């Protein structure tokens, strides 16, 4: 291959548009946000750059820490659920007959054809106390109650006197369901990709040599697809951490995450500097997670199962 | 008062989108050709044929975009006018726009129909002498409730803010300023007294009550009420009126401690590409017949006295539109409190939202 210096024009043809794009839509906005984050609001429309760190110091206020912590653990739990649900699904798709496979993949991708907002409104309809899910549970309860009455146990209220709908909206459970629902495809696809690449003969060898199904999964399958699992974890966890729409709608103001506070700084509070500092802090956290992941990945590949 | 979508058949998901901070209305930048007025309004907050009739009469086209709340509106204008000629902020935000020097003065000579406006609206505190604003609609905040779910109709903000009686069946607005202000009313304080003690007391009250509150609704309290998810909702009167028309079991009351009386105004932002067109459109909207058509469609209270004379008693004597009595005498108008107070309010609100 030619060295780029030998063909500067071709190099420029590729480099300039992409570098320009990055500059205009990434570097410049980020620089503005950084300058805002070390500025002070002095009036409704004016911001003065004073190189203050006050906005970053405010991140240590207890309520902000509480919300950061809440975002971390909600995203953490949701990521674990995504992996636990996503892995078996990916395994099913990877081992499905070649004819069925594209259809299964299509089913995973299909929700993306609908706008996130519409899907979230659909979840509101399903998860409400008078929603579809509670409707189904009530129907099951009624059948159970009838059956109990039929066998003469109706008087004891074994399953409660009345049906009590489960509250999801405005609770952690509702937000976690929403986060998992939205991000699950992002967990399935990388795991599926790593399972596809896997040489099946390792599994056969393991089983032939006397390891059980569980042992084969734990010692062979999981370690060999760990890269896919890590990717899945990262690309579900990071967007969940900055999730705005899901807690805003499904949390009903009771389960705010950090993005909801950031949004208010740019609207009601009119505190662009503080909002910028929080946004950048979220970005730093993301970088740290990515750094840890790439560090772990490089160590893993050196140690490697080859 | 985010979604002014009164008639059910006019409802769109847009109000909800705006409620979470997304709005797909494109600013009119670059489209401000001769003979176009760029009008930026709330959802379903104009008569069905008002704008078409304006175009028929004057030949001036109207580019009509929607915003979802005042905060979004201000955020769009704080760094310059994105290309609009006419906007509709609420009174305390009109003040905010004036303080930030973002409004053009209204030329009263170009709006002869100002004579139709009730003289009571001529000299409001938020814009003395009406230099920058023309009144469009006004209303109140109160409690929408499900009649069959309460033993006696609610009469006090205490039913929302301190009572255990309706635990798990309460929706408050999601807007911090208003929620704190109604707490101040309950405490017997002025809703414009943002002293640290008042704010701390209101914050403690909300944190204690949070477990009993189902939702801080981004202005969809009336939908929660209609769906049966809550039985009491703090809401803008027009929003509750909207669901009262769909469901006879819903009522509206202004609590005895008094409430906020708000007013939405027509304003021309600085840098408007077509201020003459904007003046012409304001004049058209203030016409008696046009005003009556608008009010009849959106069911908010109109300050247009000439329009009111054209309307039937179902509107003009509706206590949910024109409330009266002691509660109204104790009511106040919200005054813009300044940038420092905004930051204070948000910090307290974040503590409420982070609690529990």
Main sheet characteristics of chain B: 6 strands, mixed
> CATH superfamily of the largest domain in chain B, called what?
Periplasmic binding protein-like II
In what order do the strands lie side by side in the largest sheet of chain A? 1-2
CATH topology of the largest domain in chain B: D-Maltodextrin-Binding Protein, domain 2
Uncertain residue ranges of chain B: 1-33
- CATH topology of the domain at 61-128 and 167-303 in chain A: the name is MetI-like fold
Please report which band the strand proportion of chain B falls in: under 5%, 5-15%, 15-25%, 25-35%, 35-45% or over 45%. Answer: 5-15%
- Main pleated sheet of chain A: 2 strands, antiparallel
Structural class of chain B: alpha/beta
Measured as a percent range, the helix fraction of chain B is 25-40%
For the largest interface, the chains and their residue counts are: A-B, 39 and 46 residues
Query: Mind telling me which CATH architecture of the largest domain in chain B this is?
Result: 3-Layer(aba) Sandwich
Q: Give the C-level CATH assignment of the domain at 61-128 and 167-303 in chain A.
A: Mainly Alpha
Distance between the termini of chain A: 30 Å
Number of helices of chain B: 15
Topology, element by element:
The complex is a heterodimer of chains A (306) and B (356).
Chain A: H1 8-37, E1 39-41, E2 47-49, H2 54-57, H3 62-95, H4 101-109, H5 116-127, H6 132-150, H7 172-197, H8 201-208, H9 213-224, H10 226-241, H11 245-250, H12 258-266, H13 272-303
Antiparallel strand pairs in A: 1-2
Helix pairs in contact in A: 1-13, 3-7, 3-10, 7-10, 8-9, 10-13, 12-13
Chain B: H1 14-19, E1 36-42, H2 50-58, E2 61-67, H3 70-77, E3 86-87, H4 91-99, E4 134-146, H5 158-161, E5 170-173, H6 176-186, H7 196-209, E6 213-217, H8 221-227, E7 232-236, H9 237-246, E8 250-253, E9 261-266, H10 275-285, H11 288-298, H12 305-308, H13 313-316, H14 326-329, H15 339-354
